[in-house]
Amino acid sequence: MFTFLQMLSSNILTQPAYFIGIMVFIGLLAMKKPFHEALAGFIKTAVGFFILTIGSGGLTSTFKPIIDALGTKFQMEAAVVDTYFLMGQMYGDTGLFSIEGAVVWTMFAFAVSIAVNFILVILNKWTRCRTLYVTGHTLQGYTTLMMWLVYLVCPAARNMGFTILFGALCGVWAAVGSNITVEATQNLTGGAGFAIGHQEMLGIWFTDKIAGFFGKPEDSVENIQLPGFLSIFKDNVVSTAILMTIFFGGLMLVIGEPAMREIDSTFTATTLFIVYIITKCIYFSVYMYILLAGVRMFVAELMKAFEGISQKLIKGSMPAVDCAVAFNYAHPNVPLIGFIFGFFGQIIAIAGLLIFKSPLFLVPGFVPLFFDNATIAIYANKRGGKNAAILCSILNGLFQVLISFVMIMFVKGVGGYSLSAWPAFFDNNTFFAGLMVVIHFVGPYGGAMIAIIALLALNQLYYRKHKAVYYNHIKEN
């Protein structure tokens, strides 16, 4: 029996594709779906995850020669302000797979986070948690990413016991974090009956509180006329290719052709330097597209099982959905304003780091640059008009780069590990960044327990402040 369990663990449970696939398979069967549908869900989940690993491997192989050349010539490192670049590193050979047991531990943490979120909402009469976090891809992403980052800064956390506790913490954060977006989102949507379950939940709450100080809501972004060509930046493929060409293309020009030829064996003698640069930068977009295609495939099946179970078990709860849903309740100019001025804020911060001779060069990444800043701009515009949308986006862009710098240097300083990126969404830059520091200095169990108790207590205070309207969504439904 022990040999069988050992074989099962080493061949199935340590493979994220199979582990998540089994979760989906069981979830679909629990919903009384036919066996063939559950099997199809398992296959699509596994295939999607394997596609993700191909994309992550491609990003790493494209990125590495540039970083090596930069370090050789200027004694400088580079990293990307982007979630999926870091995910690529996490699922690479030097990520989770280099820590014995870490792959299966992080998958268990994800499973625990789902269960805890469900339990807190079921017990909402006492917990006051109204929102069910149905964006499974985000929950899976930040649970596994942050679990891995905690492993790097606190080796004492590398065990199943703490992993379960951390999964519970992520489940508490999913419930409490999405819960504090309800009132701001109801105001934005006119009472549409959903919350936001993403990685800028604290950012939404904070923006909703401060945006009114910067301007008036009637002075809206929709009054600004933007050039038509800016619409191309709504396309992830185009935006990634352009951003990577500007920044990594510029880096390769500074590094020079001889250094790149010496480092990168794929740079053949017959290839022109300019063609090499363009090809490299476009490949960033290619592998990002592959990675996201894999994510979309396995997440579609995960969401199907997750939402189906939630509808059967937790009636009357409010769904916490992807931040992109909020885009439907704002003028099309608002997300673009968030992207443009968030980018402007990032450039200011990057320039500042270069002026002060930072040992780390940071490159903007599309995902947090667009989605984080666009979401914050939407909520800022609702409360404080265009001035608030512009100022909040600039400040968040600055914040994204500066916290990325601090946390990448922190992980290297205390864990001796060089991150290729930082997942620079607002919640990761505040709650999870602070949590990593606390866990490193206080210890894994003490740090996690402090966070869980504090979150549940703060949620009770939030309920008391909004008691009169807290359960209005049930009456409306």
What is the gist of this entry?
InterPro entries: Ascorbate-PTS_EIIC, PTS_sugar-sp_permease. This protein has 18 helices and five strands.
Characterization of this structure:
This protein is 71% helix and 4% strand. It has one domain (2-476). By secondary structure, the chain is mainly alpha-helical. It starts with a helix and ends with a helix. The strands form two sheets. The protein has a three-stranded parallel beta sheet. A two-stranded parallel sheet has the order 1-5.
Strand content: under 5%
Across the major sheet, the strand order is 2-4-3
Fraction of residues in H or I helices = over 70%
Count of discrete structural domains: 1
Tally the helices: 18
- Gyration radius over CA: 22 Å
Task: Give the beta-strand count.
Answer: 5
Low-confidence stretches are none
Q: Tell me the distance between the termini.
A: 51 Å
Identify the overall geometry. globular
User: What structural class is derived from the secondary structure elements?
Assistant: mainly alpha
Tell me the major beta sheet. 3 strands, parallel
Mean pLDDT: 85
Q: SSE string, helix = H, strand = E? A: HHHEHHHEHHHEHHHHEHEHHHH
Assembly state of the chains shown:
single chain
Family: Belongs to the UlaA family.
GO biological process, one term: phosphoenolpyruvate-dependent sugar phosphotransferase system
Pfam families: EIIC-GAT (PF03611)
Keywords: Cell membrane, Membrane, Phosphotransferase system, Sugar transport, Transmembrane, Transmembrane helix, Transport
